[in-house]
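INPUT
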Amino acid sequence: MNRPVEILLVEDNPSDEELTLHVLSRHFAGRIADRVKIVRDGAEALEFLFCTGAYAGRGPHDPPRMLLLDLKLPKIDGLEVLRRAKADPRTRAIPIVVFSSSWEDRDLQQARELGAHSYVVKPVDFGQFAEAVREALAATNEAA
Amino acid sequence: MSVPMAGQTQERTIEELRSYLAAIVDSSDDAIIGKRLDGVIETWNRGAERLYGYAAPEVVGRHIALLEPPELSGEISGILARLANGETIRNHRTVRMRKDGSKVGVSVTASPIYDAGGRVVGASTIGRDIGERAALEDALRFSEDRYRSLALAGALIVWTKNAQGEVVEDWPMWRAFTGQRAGELAGRGWANAVHPDDRERISHVFAQALRSGTVYETEYRLRRHDGEYRHMTVRGVPVLEPGGRVREWIGSCTDMTERKRAEEEARQSQRELALKTRFATIFLTLPEREIFAAVLDAVLEHTQSPEGIFGYIDEAGALVFPIWTWGEGHPSGAPGEAIRFRRREWTGIWGRALIEGRSIYSNEPAPCPPDSASVRRVLAVPIFFQKEPIGLFAIANKATDYGESDRETLERIARDTAPIFKARLQRDAQERAREHAEEEIRTMNAELEERVQERTAQLQAANRELESFAYSVSHDLRAPLRAIHGFSRILMEEHAPLLPPECRHYLEVVRDNASQMGELIDDLLTFSRLSRQPLQKQPIAPADLVAQALHDLSPELAPRIEIRAGDLPPCEGDPALLKQVFVNLLSNAIKYTGRREQARIEVGAQPRANGHAAVYYVRDNGVGFDMRYVHKLFGVFQRLHHAADYPGTGIGLANVQRILHRHGGRAWAEAAVGQGATFYFTMEPEP
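OUTPUT
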């Protein structure tokens, strides 16, 4: 994985992972799906972001352009990952698109308050999902 | 007019008899007087003229009382009264006054005169001169009688002493009172009738008076002739000569015994009256725990006893002393605390008094507790009300021994106190019963409250579980659904050309079912949210909610549908939720009139009556339903129609009912197959 990571996908459900990758590969040019780093829980996501634990050797200067963050995760849940990412100056600028299963989700409001870039119900509607990702990536371009 | 001979003869004979009798009367030496019952003199013979000095013409027609000497005033009217009663007075020795004012001793015999009908119409009086001496004797005897009467009547004894305080004249009144003989008075003999304990004291008083020559007053007890000592007040007054020297002493003794007794009785009854008043005040006004101390204080004060106990018999028959002041002696008895003695614990003098139902006093220290230690003399009196013992007074340690008069006093107090004491005990018992009942109610309420809180906590826990269940459902059921939906879509969109038509159909079925399952999950979550979400109540105009609902439903409205809205009375509730009610009912109505050429939907209300909640309704002319299944209508996921005919999840009416229940209202429906349906509901609690 020499090329920089475009998207950090934090997802523990393999079907959702596969669907997500499928949608990304279909809707984005430039084989973006190849530049998606997948982690399975919140702890691993934080280790990747802050170059600790299993990712201690990773260079600190190549953060992912954006995060696709599921809220319901093993070990450390998505809201906590969001909170820590937004609390640290090194990672604060990374746009985070929060994934959830339902509009009914009670964490919706909290995610917004913690600084999530957007909130997306998991891709039943592929087009809407792709649009959210596109917006988030565009936000990083503007920032840069 | 001829008169019968015989009658004339008889008349003459009576006339002759009268003259004859008149002659006898006239010639009599005795004074014979005829008088009417009112005392007016009718006849007056020569004897009377001689004896009294009045000629007949001078006195006939006047009152007989002119013969009465002033000192005997009233005697003659007394005699007349006796005569009127038919009594004869024989040989009555008395004194009469002559015309010249001189007195004459007479012996009088007086008899009533009857008329033919037997009524007393007058009297005859025969008076005989008995001479001056006899009259004097009588007068003297009369005088002694009077002294005796006077003395014995207790009014006064009058005596004299010479300047040196010696008895020199007879003291007939003193003798009459004391029964001493004339010779016994000389020197200091008179003083033998004075109570020995008083003699020394009064001799000092006399000596002092003699020295100073001034009026003195003292008291002593004087023995009456029957041996009883009487309380006398004594007053001595010096009679002075022109030079100022004492010539003699005149004194009087007045028997004050009766007056003293009367005064003492008056004082006693006044004290008892005051005591009764005090008791009445205590029993009527003081709170229960203060009564006993107050009554006991009053009794102790009245009986001059320093200690006492006062208790009542409670509902269980035990004797309760609300304040125990009886020294030590009771195992649990700290002084000042209430003590309850069950019947078998009744001991000592007071215990015996209660058990035997009578007053008992003792002036010897009792050996047994609780009368021991400090109780030396004691008097215990049970209090009875209508023969039922209701309490007890016991007093102790008076300075002198308890006796009958103390017993009577305390019994009188007990008797006088009983009715009001009983009334108070009843009142207090009722009060206690009421307090007890209130306490029970409070306890029950507290328990109820506790149970309610427990239940509420359980319900809240159940709600939380339900909520987390719903949350899990939303996440966990969706994930596989998403996979089914997503991958079948990929198949359809990206690989359709490779699939045979049959496979494409199956994929469509899979996707349709996955979609429907998604809706079911969404509806279930909505339903669960309706249960959790707090109500935001406010005044509502239901007509506005209907308008909003119709706006939301506008994509489903078609020209074939006619909607009429009547007057909808205002109510109170959560506008968002109640709008949902209208949305669901109207959308049902639209759905089930879908096959009507002319669909008619009516929204209205029945007028509010007698404070009942307004009943709103939504009526349609759609397919209706079979009333046999009406009980299933509002259940979750219950459907009365085939999904193929009328799509839906079967959650709408369950949500309607849930919303109305949360507002305290309810929903029900009427319908017939093919005849349309009417859904009624109330949005407020009904009385």
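end of record. The domain at 7-143 of chain A is CATH 3.40.50.2300 (Rossmann fold).
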